Amino acid sequence: MSAHNPQNAKPNAGGASASEWPLWEVFVRSRAGLDHKHCGSLHAPDAPMAIQMAREVYTRRQEGSSVWVVRASDITASDPRDKDMYFDPMEDKVYRHPTFYQLPESVDHM
Amino acid sequence: MTSITLKPSPQVQYVLRLADTALILAQRLSEWCGHAPVLEEDIALTNMSLDLVGQSRALLTHAGQLHAQAGGKAFDEDQLAFWRQERDFLNPTLVELPNTAEEATHRRNRPGDFAFTVLRNLMVAAWLKQAWSHLARSNDPELAAIAGKAVKEARYHQQHNGDWVVRLGDGTDESKARMQRALDRLWPYVPELFEDDDVDEAAAQAGLGPRSSALQEGWEAEVRAVLAQATLQPPEPTPFRSTGRRGIHSEHMGYLLAEMQSLQRAHPGAAW
User: Fold this and answer.
1) Which of B65, B125, B199, B202 has its CB surrounded by the most CB atoms within 10 Å?
2) Per-residue confidence of chain B (272 residues) as pLDDT tens digits?
3) How much is the ipTM here?
4) DSSP class of residue B250?
């Protein structure tokens, strides 16, 4: 995750380019009541401008009613090399799914 | 096919001034498509251009209907956009200036000056926001409906472009100098936005919309607040007055129209 980390670069007075702007991850909520979903990333000089850019780039076809932006450098991600250690042990533990319960008929859509 | 000729009533002229302000700025902003400093802003500028095209389409359609109601010919939005002559366009000169702070009359200034572009966008958005706010109470229900929708777009345009003006004005020495140069270039074209004439008088009397002068106080308060935050200083007023809203344009307008109208004039009725 740390290989691509442009936000450590400070804009210089000579001519800041997009590659020196921080990277932001964008989360859009499509309707009230739904979760914000990750939909992509963009470059912007600061948080308020990142919100505006997210609005421009990711909600121009009425996709959104709310937007979050998070600096990519503030996200801590699991290491892809740990994938088998972290996630594979769950493969054979079907009993963790709540599929063995009998639901009363009055409960719909579980 | 040849150019169309209008016999516009003051009412039609009033609506055309608004329509042409949106249309001509949209055309200028479209020049940024594919050339903005960063991808995100490229999309932002073209989104704004498309918002303005949408506003001008609604207004031109309405102007065409008003023209017919007053006993003139019925023209649609395309005829009004692509078959009118320069003298019949009634936008303030401010919006037709090329995207550059240079005085020199280069025909091409691509991709253009970003400082000039965002400052003009701020000025026009703040002006349109004032106009739309008043027009939402117009006794012309069609115009009031257009205004009610457009005021939201203008608010966002003002916010986004104002934020750039503050960041660049209160930025590096270089960005501040460029913003100040843009302000010096644009400021003399501002008074035209607030000058009343017979068209304004007729619109105000009829309850169609506000006089231009009624927009000044709100505009000044908001734009000067942004300029102060951006540490920019407007230049001293000059006696110069631009006259685009009376159909007398700068030398740049003909080139702009030539580009905007050439396709429809070469292929009349061409559609997507």
Assistant:
1) B125
2) 689 999 899 999 999 999 999 999 999 999 999 999 899 999 999 999 999 999 999 999 999 999 999 999 999 999 999 999 999 999 999 999 999 877 665 555 566 899 999 999 999 999 999 999 999 999 999 999 999 999 999 999 999 999 999 999 999 999 999 999 999 999 999 999 999 999 999 999 999 999 999 999 999 999 999 999 999 999 999 999 999 999 999 999 999 999 999 999 999 988 87
3) 0.85
4) -
Out of B38, B156, B172, name the one closest to residue A18 (CB).
Answer: B38
pTM for the whole thing? Answer: 0.88
Question: Cβ atoms within 10 A of the Cβ of A107, count?
Answer: 7
Residue B172: count other Cβ atoms within 10 Å of its Cβ: 15
Chains A, B: CB contacts within 8 A come to 36
Q: What distance in Å separates residue A34's CA from the closest CA in chain B?
A: 25
Rounded CA-CA distance A18/A14 in Å is: 13
Which of B32, B38, B165 has the most A C-beta neighbours within 10 Å, making it the best mutation to test the interface with A? B38
The CATH number of B10-234+244-266, from 3.40.50.2300, 3.60.21.10, 3.40.630.30, 1.20.1260.10, is 1.20.1260.10
- Which residue in A13, A48, A53 is closest to B40 by CB distance? A53
CATH code of A82's domain: 3.10.20.520
SS3 B55: helix
Tell me whether residues B40 and A57 touch, CB distance under 8 A: yes
